[in-house]
Amino acid sequence: MKRLLLMLVLWAAAVLPLRAQNDDALPALVQLLGQSDDPQFQLDLLKGMSEGLKGRRGVAMPVGWEAVSAKLAKSPSAPVRELAQSLSLTFGSRAALAALRVLLADPKAEADARQQALAALLAAKDPALPATLQTLLRDAAARGSALRALASYDDARTPAAVLEVYGSLPVAERKDALNTLAARTPFAQALLAAMVSGQVPKSDLMADVVRQLRSLKNAEVNAQLEKIWGVARESGEDKLKEIAKYKTLLGAGPAGEPARGRAVFTRTCQQCHLLFGEGGKIGPDLTGSNRADLDYLLQNILDPNAVIPNDYRTSTLETKDDRSITGIVTKQDGTAVTIVTPNDTLVIPRGEVKSLTPGELSMMPEGILQALTAAEVRDLVAYLRGAAQVPLAK
Ligand code: HEC
Prior knowledge:
Radius of gyration: 24 Å
Shape: elongated
Number of helices: 18
Number of strands: 7
Order of helices and strands: HHHHHHHHHHHHHHHHEEHEEEEEH
Mean pLDDT: 88
Strand order of the largest sheet: 6-5-4-3-7
Low-confidence stretches: 16-21
Bound molecules: heme C
Largest sheet: 5 strands, antiparallel
Strand content: 5-15%
């Protein structure tokens, strides 16, 4: 009981002042860490410190930290070692950054440990990370995270490195690649050029990536998009016409094939929606929805902005180093903004945010059927209206 009380006091001492961006409490906590040999107590202190410093970068290293971190690196407790290392990163220790890069690049290290190393390096915005990430594009176990992480860096070598492996990537990682290439204007220009030359199939371009590309607000990117993708259709009247057009198309042709429709769903919808227990959670679970009703489906797919539940409104965040992120803001305070995109959850420190613009649009993209052939739309609708999961068509 006494210990619990002490812990609470210490926690409050550590967290509250740090939250207020005042790091005066740090040296005292470091001293306490140095004096204790109790791994549980050390862990509590470390947790308090890292909770208080969450989302901050470039915090000055408190006096005594080098010695204490060297001692904690030998702790029998793995969580103590890991937390101490991640705090070293927050304090900008070069040795800690280098050690983590080695761990991240090691294909024989445990997948979890590599993931944590990557998360810590990203949180510290390690300047030497892009080169490591580009090498990891050839490592199937680490490739997806490397692709997502590369969006954080304005590194001129990234587009070529990503485009080189693009053709060999599975569907989910192609999405990661496209989202990263849509995150910055120079990357987007390289992506669109690769689509024009045929290196990346035009049919891989999906509505959510198009929206991300438009959010860059670059005239050259928009002109290319118009050629490859077409113009955005906006008015309510057009929407009614589109719904009528698809109804005719679905009524007239041959019946769709659900197994092929599942493949279309995997490519175009699954990153955001659960159906039959598989998929992402950005949008509502479609399993229990009114799927069997064609009008419901067409209205929601073709006119997602008719009614937008507030939880699903998109915002566009621009970072000071010119990355654009379109997603749902799930949390924000004085320290950081948390934004969920179709393929990632990002915590951006306030100091790196150039602008955050709340949008009027749903996270469900417009024009989603525009990229599909008539046969693909029939297959997709047949799959969506089905009562149960079907095997995926090859
Ligand atoms: C980038 C993420 C994203 C993608 C991709 C996406 N959706 Fe959505 N979808 C959402 C979100 C968020 C909502 C909820 C907000 C809204 O209704 O506008 C939604 C809503 C819906 C709804 C209405 C659900 C309800 O609440 O009744 C349907 C139906 C739907 N989507 C179908 C699809 C289909 C089919 C596809 C693929 C062709 C697709 N969506 C692709 C994010 C997405």
